Amino acid sequence: MKITRSIRVSRKQLAAHKLRTALALLGIVIGVSAVIIMVAIGNGAQEQVLSKIEAMGTNLLIINAGQVQKSAGRQQIRGTVTTLTLDDVEAIGRGCSAVNAAAPLQSKKMQVKFGNLSTNTTIVGTTAEFQKIRNFHVATGAFFTDEENLASRRAAVLGRSVVKNLFEGSNPVGETIRVGKVTFEVIGVMESKGVDLNGFDQDDQIFIPIRTALRRVFNLPYINTINLQATSAETMGRAVTQINEVLRDRHRLTKQQKPDDFTIQNQADLLEAQRETTDTFTMLIGSIAGISLLVGGIGILAIMLIAIRERTNEIGLRMAVGASRKDIMTQFVIEASILGVGGGLVGILLGILGAFFVRIGTSWAVSISPDSVGLAFGFSLLVGLFFGVYPARRASLLDPVTALRNE
Asked: What is the pTM of this model?
């Protein structure tokens, strides 16, 4: 009953000083809404990055010829490495039980012509397994088969950007294009994949059979990449071990001191690294936004101290008629809590609306997390209590006689 009466009194006191109460609430509102918006932006960025990694394929392993080194924050292979061959792909398929599928890959930027139009695009030599491993799908027509690859057929499957540049959006299936000096029949068009993590347009590619690419287009006996799919997420580690053993044996790297002439990239490791990075980013911007909550708490502290000074006579009178120090302290803690809860609720509403407008007004991905909403609200309540306890205790320690004499 006392709590209910204290809440009613607190509401009347706060309503009696609307401007002062609004200013105290403002800091909490800004803090809570800022936390929700910033964390929503961070979560959206994380989901976008992780979805792009997962779109690369399921249980994906990528073997690159040579050692991958980081330069200017990006992974690069120094020099031309000729150690990977089509025979390596076949050996991995035979000797690695944890590998479900393998697709060789060799690519090069080249000029492609159709009639009087031309464009520079990436020519990718691969096999039919590439579709399954890398989640690429044909929208129109068909992808070349293993039989067509063995026969070195001059067949091409175009990405959406190539269709736009060469055919101005019309259906190219059945038409003939020229890659370098070699003509190819267009047999299909891929579904749109968009931009990958490195900013590369995955739709600006032309896929041709790997044997045709090596013999007729690139004139090379080697490949630079092998895309692999492990049998399951649990066997990815075992697949890496098996692949390493097969390739070291084939490349005559049997002595332990000899370094690998290839690099195996694990999609699971990439996912974990990106998740840790985005988690750190989200925590950082959330913490920065949380500072405004502390500023709001200082505002509550100032308002409560002013209220105590103005209501010294009231405090003395209540204590004179029987109110205990605990009652006085409870009264002011409740007032501070109302400010924290009220600011938290309004801040949640504005934070959700703000995140919604950010999503509409920008190209950023935004994802509101219930955990961040709950955390922001809980922190606002904690701030109200924390910065309300000192003024409340100070009020409860006032001497009743001195308080009654105060003007």
From this structure: 0.63
